Structure formats: C-alpha cells, structure tokens
Amino acid sequence: MSGARTLLQMAGATPSPAKLSEAAVVIIDAQNEYVSGRLPLDGVDAALARIADLLTAARAAGAPVIHVAQRGRPGGLFDPETAHFKFAAQASPRDGEAVVEKPLPNSFAKTDLDAKLQATGRKTLIIAGFMTHMCVSATARSALDHGYTVTVAADAAATRALPDPLGGADIPADHLHRTALAELADRFATVARVADIKA
C-alpha cells in the first residue's frame, strides 16, 4: 500500500466519482486519427469500448453529452477533409448531442465549450477520450479554473509512447497514462473506472 497522499487527501477531501444524474459528459477527440491514422494509441480499442459503455450509461441517465473534436489543418493531423477527422464509430454523436471543434489541446481554449456546459446547468464533468497526457489533461486542468468539478474516466482514455526529452529510452504509453492520471488525481480531478461511475 502506498504511503503517498494527494493534495486533495491532505486537504481532507475524499474524492468520489461523479454521478451521471448530476454531470455533463465530455468526450475528447475520440477520432479516427487515433485509430487508423498517423497517431495510433496503445489500448485505443479497449478505451473506445469503455467510451461506448460510458455513452450508453450517460444517455440512459439523461446526462448531457458534448463531443469535442480536434480540427487540424489540410494535409496535417486531424485534417477535416479526411476520414481521420471523423469520430470513431464507437463514439459517434447522436442527434441532439453537441459537438465542439477545437484548435488547441485545452477544449475550453478558443471554443464555446464553457457556454455549452453552462447551458446544461451542471457544474460537474465526466471527461474521457484522447490523449490522456495531452488534451484530457489540459481540459481537466482548465475545467478546474472554470469552476467545474471533474471526474476522469481512466479506462476510457489512452495515449502513446513518447521520446524521453533527456535522451533516455522511450517512455511507454502505459507509464505516461498512469502518470498523467496521477497528476490529475493530485489536485484536478477524481480518477475512476467507467464501471464505478453510476447514474
């Protein structure tokens, strides 16, 4: 058992997963670029299956769902003229679910995400999607600044290996995923599995 404690624990908080009856669900960048494009992620199929589970539960509970899409430039990653820009089949929006296109990792930056969330009347978010260390992390951190309480669905997120900037061996995707989640759990979010998120 670890002796380490998060800042939230030190402050006396006892984080628990958000309830779908009280939350808005934000699915970040569940796009084909991460499945069949130039940025394949480790564990993407399993993460998409959990995203599908989360969406099923959210829709059954009547929770607002907002889908975020990274919009790239022609010829680059997330090129809106290609199939790689489209949402993966498991995470496709349904009629009535809002879609936000973003130019930056933080889903609040240069978008109307905050306005769409305010329109739901909910101040609690459940976040899932890609990549754990990048857009999921940036959005969860910014959500705190915007006054939201956040749960990150750990098994409905994934990332990829990265080079060590100090010249060591590549850092494996699973290490980055767990580290990004630990960083968020320290202060920014509750981290939970989809199965632990209840109506």
Instruction: Give the ordered list of helices and strands.
Output: HEHEEHEHEHE
Structural class: alpha/beta
Uncertain stretches of 5 or more adjacent residues: none
CATH topology (fold) name: Rossmann fold
End-to-end Cα distance, whole Å, is 30 Å
Number of spatially distinct domains = 1
Strand content: 15-25%
Please tally the β strands and state the result: 6
CATH class, named Alpha Beta
Total helical segments: 5
Report the principal-axis shape: globular
**The CATH homologous superfamily:** Isochorismatase-like
Give the helix level as a range of percent. 25-40%
Second-tier CATH architecture: 3-Layer(aba) Sandwich
Please explain how this structure is put together.
- By secondary structure, this protein is of the alpha/beta class.
- The chain has one domain: Isochorismatase-like (Rossmann fold, 3-Layer(aba) Sandwich), CATH 3.40.50.850.
- Helices cover 30% and strands 19% of the residues.
- The protein contains five helices and six strands; from the N terminus they run H-E-H-E-E-H-E-H-E-H-E.
- The protein has helices at residues 7-10, 44-61, 113-120, 132-145, 173-187; strands spanning 23-28, 65-70, 98-102, 124-130, 149-158, 190-192.
- Helix 4 packs parallel to helix 5 (173-187).
- It is globular, with a radius of gyration of 16 Å.
Spell out the key features of this protein.
Rossmann fold; alpha/beta; globular; 6-stranded parallel sheet; 199 residues
